[in-house]
Inverse folding.
């Protein structure tokens, strides 16, 4: 059966190009291409022809653009892979498309090998999804059949005691047969789990692409370290770096970890970028106020009464006045000066949730910096790790001592020492949470 592909682009040349690229596969019946010139035409074709598997779309089009098309495909629940083809190759367009559910992104001019490989990968993902769905349906049916057979056997035993031995033999045979079926289903489930694991690894690559490169810290100071240790493959902790024109940093700890935490972290990064790009705001306290409102609105928390969100510390460096501005939602600022640890406490309110009816605005703290000051912001994963001789937490007090005791060595070396201490403390125990620690020397 041919694989159906819908191409959405207002450039007639692209239609001719794709027909030329894939003329052999179209002629052999392996691929079928339909074309729309705007997002609305594409939606009409999707509703009339449910057989499409892949949608290729431009971003800039009349009537309905590509990003609006992606949003409609997602909201309507169409089970298709969407690939964005556009000359807009900047990071913001890529991130927006991915947030709308795009599977991949290809820039113009189109490389035929790249497009062919991307289509093949899309079909493989769809086939894996369909097989997993089919396996789940088979497993549910097998469990129902087993439960029905056992209930019938037990009823026969109760009604006729003379046939107990014979019915036991029948039941044992049935159990053996059902066990064999369950083992077969177990193999299918294990395969599906492997496929899911591969998808999570792909999500990790997406998350790493969205996180800023740690080398951006050098824009503030060349003397820094970053400890970033996800508990699972993907992380609910994230760091954020922007220039507005002042250098800005944030470290956040989202609700949960693994896939759920990673989804929240991607939402947090997207909303912080939106605040900076659209609202041109740079005061940390105001940024946290806006971030809280956007999280509540994005997750519809007033409707569902949910309290997911994040704890976060955000910094702004003013190089002219050598001043640091800080605001925190349950995450503090630690500053080491001449071997002494100074703490700026956060506001005791998380970002997101509706549990605080008397919520106040977040406070922006102003700290005058001196040469050789060391600044630290972090999630709670480091201090919450179990281990040591008695299997207890490191605790915040012990973390403070580690920070102070190692403040006389170069900062990058301090990061190595803190990482080694954490790993030695953990030993053979499981990591309990995502770990994120960021240190900067002024």
């Amino acid at each position: 059966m041919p694989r159906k592909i819908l191409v959405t682009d207002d450039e007639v040349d692209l239609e001719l190009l794709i027909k030329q690229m894939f003329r052999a596969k179209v002629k052999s019946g392996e691929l079928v291409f339909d074309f729309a010139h705007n997002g609305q035409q594409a939606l009409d074709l999707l509703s009339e022809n449910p057989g499409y598997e892949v949608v290729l779309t431009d971003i800039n089009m009349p009537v309905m653009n590509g990003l609006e098309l992606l949003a409609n495909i997602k909201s309507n629940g169409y089970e298709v892979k969407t690939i964005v083809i556009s000359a807009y190759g900047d990071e913001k367009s890529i991130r927006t498309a991915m947030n709308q559910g795009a599977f991949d992104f290809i820039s113009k001019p189109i490389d035929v090998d790249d497009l062919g490989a991307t289509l093949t990968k899309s079909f493989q993902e769809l086939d894996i999804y369909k097989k997993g769905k089919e396996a789940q349906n088979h497993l549910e049916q097998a469990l129902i059949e087993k439960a029905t057979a056992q209930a019938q056997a037990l009823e026969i035993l109760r009604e006729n005691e003379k046939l107990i031995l014979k019915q036991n033999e029948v039941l044992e045979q049935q159990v053996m047969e059902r066990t064999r079926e369950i083992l077969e289903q177990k193999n299918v489930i294990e395969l599906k789990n492997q496929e899911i694991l591969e998808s999570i690894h792909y999500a990790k690559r997406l998350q790493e692409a969205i996180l800023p490169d740690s080398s951006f810290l050098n824009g503030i100071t060349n003397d820094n370290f970053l400890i970033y240790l996800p508990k699972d493959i993907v992380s609910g902790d994230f760091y954020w770096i922007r220039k507005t024109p002042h250098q800005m940093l944030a470290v956040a700890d989202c609700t949960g970890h693994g896939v759920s935490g990673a989804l929240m972290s991607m939402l947090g990064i997207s909303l912080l970028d939106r605040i900076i790009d659209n609202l041109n705001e740079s005061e940390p306290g105001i940024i946290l106020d806006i971030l809280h409102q956007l999280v509540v609105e994005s997750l519809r928390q007033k409707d569902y009464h949910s309290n997911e969100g994040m704890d976060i510390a955000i910094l702004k460096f003013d190089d002219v006045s050598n001043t640091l501005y800080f605001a925190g939602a349950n995450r503090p600022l630690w500053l080491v000066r001449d071997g002494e640890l100074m703490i700026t406490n956060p506001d005791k309110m998380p970002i997101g949730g509706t549990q605080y009816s008397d919520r106040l605005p977040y406070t922006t703290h102003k700290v005058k910096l001196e040469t050789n000051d060391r600044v630290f912001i972090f999630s709670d994963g480091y201090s919450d790790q179990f281990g040591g001789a008695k299997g207890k937490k490191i605790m915040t007090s012990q973390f403070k001592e580690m920070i102070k005791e190692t403040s006389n060595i170069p900062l990058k070396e301090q990061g190595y020492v803190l990482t080694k201490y954490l790993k030695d403390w953990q030993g053979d125990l499981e990591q309990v949470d995502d770990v994120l620690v960021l240190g900067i020397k002024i």
